[in-house]
Amino acid sequence: MNFSLLLCLALFTGDADRPFDFDTEIIPVLTKAGCNAGACHGAAAGRGGFHLSLWGADPAADHEAIVHALEGRRINLARPELSLLLAKPTGQMNHGGNIVLSEQSRGTARLRDWIRSGSGRGAPRRLTGFELSPSQYVCDSVPVRIPLHSTARFDDGPSEDVTDWTIFTTSDPAAVEIDPATAVAQVRRRGRHVVIARFLDRVVPLQFIVPLADAPVDLSTEPRANFIDEEILRTLTLLRLPVSPSADDAAFMRRVHLDLTGRLPEPGAVETFLSNTVADKRARLVESLLSSDAFNDYWTLRFARLLHMHSLPNEKEGVRAYAAWLRGELAARRPFHDIARELLTATGDSHVVGPANFGRMVADARGHAELVGRFFMGMRLGCANCHNHPLDKWTQDDYHGLAAVFARLERGRNVQVASRGAVTNLRTGEPAVPRVPGERYLNSDGDHRVEFANWLTGTENHYFARATVNRLWRAMFGRGLVEPTDDLRDTNPATHPELLDRLAKDFAKHGYDIRHTLRLIALSRTYARTDASVSGNAADDRYYSRAYVRSLDPEVLADAIADVTGVANVYADHAAGTRAVTLVDPLTPSPSLDILGRCSRADGCDENATVRGGLPMQLHLLNGELINRKLSDATGRLRRLIADGKTDAEIITEFYMRGLSRAPTVDELARWHERVSTGDAADRIERLEDFAWSLLNSRRFMENH
Amino acid sequence: MRTNIRQRCDGVTRRDTLRLGTLTALGLCLSDLFRHRAGAADNKPVRAKSCILLWLDGGPSHLETFDVKPDAPAEVRGPFAAIATNVGGMQISELLPRTAQIADQIAIVRSLTSPLGEHGLANHYVLTGYKPSPVLHHPSYGSVVTHVRSGRHVLPPYVAIPEAKSTAGAGFLGLSHEPFMTGGDPSKPDFRVRDLEFFPGVTDARINRRREFLAEFDAAQAVVESTGARTDSPFDQAYRLVTTPEAKRAFDLAAEPAEVRARYGSRMFGQSCLLARRLVERGVPFVTVQNTGWDTHDGLVLRLRDGYSGAKVGVGLVPIFDQGFAALIDDLHTHGLLDETLVIAMGEFGRTPKLNVRGGRDHWPRVFSAVLAGGGISGGQAIGASDRVGESPQDRAVTPSDLACTIYTLLGIDPRHELHTVDGRPVPVNQGGHVIRELL
Predict the structure, then answer these.
(1) How many other C-beta atoms lie within 10 A of the C-beta of residue A265?
(2) Can the peptide bond before residue A134 be classed as cis, meaning omega within 30 degrees of 0?
(3) What is the dihedral of CA A132, A135, A141, A147, to 10 degrees?
(4) Is B210 exposed, middle or buried (0-12, 13-18, 19+ CB in 10 A)?
(5) Complex ipTM
(6) Hey, is the C-beta of A420 within 8 angstroms of any chain B C-beta?
(7) Do B168 and B119 meet the contact criterion of CB atoms below 8 Å apart?
(8) Average pLDDT in the A467-492 region?
(9) I need a surface site. Which of A120, A130, A270, A536 has the fewest CB within 10 A?
(10) CA–CA distance, B440 with B435 (Å, rounded to integer)
(11) How many Cβ contacts (< 8 angstroms) between chains A and B?
């Protein structure tokens, strides 16, 4: 027996020096065939009585399950091909998961050889590196076939070709398709495509770049205001995308007002701005907006959404203190890392100490850890609750370790750190050890929250700055450099990785001042482009060759409707004239805001949340009170203008100025004049109402552009 | 729509084709019907095109409705007697005489079981087929149906009368799959659906003018973007709905003969059932009728039978349900719609086997009943049973997940079909459920 086994080894492994290593040579075969996927034996409960760890995260348990469980019936050393491990996936025996390995495949051969060699665990060795060649591929035209290669390095010797066992996942199969058997990529569409390669616990991205046009574009003479423009134009040149020209002053003013303050500009301000001839008038405008109260109101709401700020049952004092504190911090221009530190470490009476409410917006330490990951690091750690993150480096130990950092926090009205408290690491069943995710365990006796905050806001830590600038970018452009903004990871690369790095470093260098970064963006030439396309860039939705049109937020839209019509919205228990953007608590009753798609923050509402509006919103705008009542209100703008004896042209111009922040063109004025003019006074009122209604329902009004 | 015509060879009957005209205008589009059929779980013919869920909110007592225990001790048996139905051997509560006459059309599942005895958790489980999870809000049946059958429609594809629990919502599928809630009380003479009628002073002519004016604004924009107008904007959908009298008439119960309205009963529940019939008749794939008040911790006689103290004719929850439910089944049958409309009546759990000291029953999820009718199911049967005292399933335990799997299968939706959360996590329509074969 011993003799024959040795003979087999010599005959079949091809590498007589070394037996198979189960962890690094057999598990990849199972992973590649999908055996340990969540839908199959990798499910928490296994499948068909056979359980493997998800993606092979626990090789010891897997070896046990394969070799020893079921009284060893999964392995037949004497006749390897009769082993359940082979007979099932190759279809020799009935298999609920169908045939996942062909008998001739290299995977089958390797499994057979391993069984023949005694199905041992092998010599433990560690994966030290995993690389793709190429890792970025730029080609001129499509379709094109590109063979991919991957190599792994282990701590016991030279690197090995592991292409056969690498799993390539394409995010857009219509653009890039990869044959799992040959690892040849077929690129079918132009643009920039990302493919994820996985081997064992490593995941690395692979990029394909195919210019969007055949002819190069020359952007060398395009003006550059700062490094944002340099980076954006570099990528546009690579992709051969032409750029749209700069937006005119009126369009710029409306856009920057909405982005920085959530408000439309007043007609008087528009006129002053348009007639101003000072060269740096845009810079002055941006400066005045960044210093305005409206800025503080609007950004309080923006951050409140991300922080899941909401009132607790029968307890409105907490959210009030929380919002007032945040607004005060923004108004005082507190550096953002100081704000972060407060949120992470505050304790005390949450009805008085605003930031102490941070941990009260979640149910427990795990929720706390997930919110910390999302808000401060732009990362989704939730996956790692039950299993290691499938697309990122986060492990269950990281997840539960971060939860353990907050395990001792008491989340009642009086927020304090108790002397005891733990969370269970679901992997080990033991109390989790507090841990800085991906870095180190915290073994000291002190308040682990402080240690974590030190790490998070330290200058060598890039998570915080990257997550923050990515959200600021999204606020200004309607999409993040990384989308979604709470999913930053190596395998979800930025559209402009260098730009994200430079913005993050610049943010840190300038004292984590959000106004600095917002100013930089607002004054870039990139931000100032018009949304109108030029030939060749109409389809661009991520390279910033033009501005992108975005829907107004529900709160901003409700305020804008009130501003244009001159009739305020009414909110229960709030003073007349209260603006929707100041209703930080999403549980403040307002049927209109609900219909417009306000997020219910108790559920959590990231910026990337769901589709809004839909039929109820349209019906409400069409037939509901939100607009209709304001148009027929005797004290409203329209009726007052009519009562004041204004002409059709004056009224049309006024609504254009208020709603669209520009005067109508001569042609537009003539056409509207023709449509509304009538000798009948009652008919005129109706026609003007219908005009104003249409303006308020037009895409140009309902969108930021 | 045209692109799908050639697919007609794959099994659409002439009757379907005739009906498609209406569906295209009012409910489903042609491609969706095909897609819906293509996604069927197996090769069994799918009959149910629509579903009406009668949601008995609060947890109806199984012992006073569809799972009577006439031979049990008084504190289990409760205050009411059992009566025979038109199906031999099947008894139900004496409060359900009309339902007893259509028992051959219904199937009672008497062995539903769940571990969840709190309203919010329980109705999430029963309305979605998933136990509540801290990380995912699962979509309810209606939202999944609208998601799978997206398309151009006039009437909203998922209507809730008058409203729905948040757990009967879209969950991670997002706002566009939330139910369209009618609000109001269909039994009231002034019943109207929110924002469906023109604002006072706004006429047909003005709506058309507004549309024309709006097109003027947006066309200018489309030129700027050189993209052409969007094909089916939410505004267009809203406009179609409010200006399609035939669609709006779906909500107009006054259009029903007085004698039909009377058959459903004058109360809110009955008239809501009638409204539901009018909607599925016009191709709406999913309608929820919500009926509240079933959380009967005290006074079973008053709440379930009488309605108010001293009532000569009972107008409590069960008689009102009995009249509306039986009328709905009858009426669907009369209209030739029963075979293609799955009707489900259920709540989130049952009630405690023993009466409490206040003459009521408390929450009891360990065994409870659900009733199904239409949609091609085999009627006239009771599936599973509770034990002697209605405490636990005696045989054939059925979980809410099994029920969900069955409902999706009956509606032609593959339970394994994958939905995706906003962050891309794939979630099957149903997980771990088994079809209740007896129903098929």
Answers:
(1) 22
(2) yes
(3) -10
(4) buried
(5) 0.81
(6) no
(7) no
(8) 90
(9) A120
(10) 9
(11) 120
User: Which residues in chain B have Cβ-Cβ distances shorter than 8 Å to A484?
Assistant: 422-423
Contact residues for A64 (Cβ-Cβ < 8 A; gap 6+): none
Neighbour tally for A470: CB within 10 Å: 23
Question: Which 152-171 residues of chain B touch chain A by CB within 8 A?
Answer: 156
Name every residue whose Cβ is closer than 8 Å to that of residue B88 and which is 6 or more positions away in sequence: none
pTM score, two decimals?
A: 0.74
A4 by Cβ neighbours in 10 Å (0-12 / 13-18 / 19+) ranks as exposed
User: Is residue A576 pLDDT above 80, yes or no?
Assistant: yes
Query: To which residue do tokens 């290669």 refer?
Result: A149
The 10 Å Cβ neighbour count of residue A20 is 25
- Chain B: closest CA distance from residue A383 (Å): 9
Q: Name residue B360's amino acid.
A: G
Q: Which chain A residues have a beta carbon less than 8 Å from that of B239?
A: 622
Hey, which residues does A154 pair with through a beta bridge? Answer: A127
Query: Stretch A34-41: mean pLDDT, rounded?
Result: 80
Given the DSSP bridges, would you call strands B50-56 and B341-346 parallel, antiparallel or unpaired? Answer: parallel
- Please give the helix or strand (H or E) that residue B341 lies within, else none: strand B341-346
Which tokens sit at A670? 């003539």
List, as ranges, residues 583-602 from A with C-beta within 8 Å of B: 597
Tokens 């080894």 belong to A9
State whether B213 and A620 contact (CB < 8 Å). Answer: no
Q: What is the pLDDT of residue B196?
A: 85
Amino acid at A593: L
Residue at token pair 């809110």: B268
Per-residue model confidence as pLDDT tens digits over B8-33: 222 333 333 333 333 333 333 222 33
B133: Cβ contacts below 8 Å, ≥ 6 apart: none
C-alpha neighbours within 13 Å on the C-beta side of residue A116: 18
Buried b / exposed e across A159-194, counting CB within 10 Å, b at 16+? eeebbbbbbbebeeeebbbbeeeebebbbbebbbbb
CA distance B214 to A76: 75
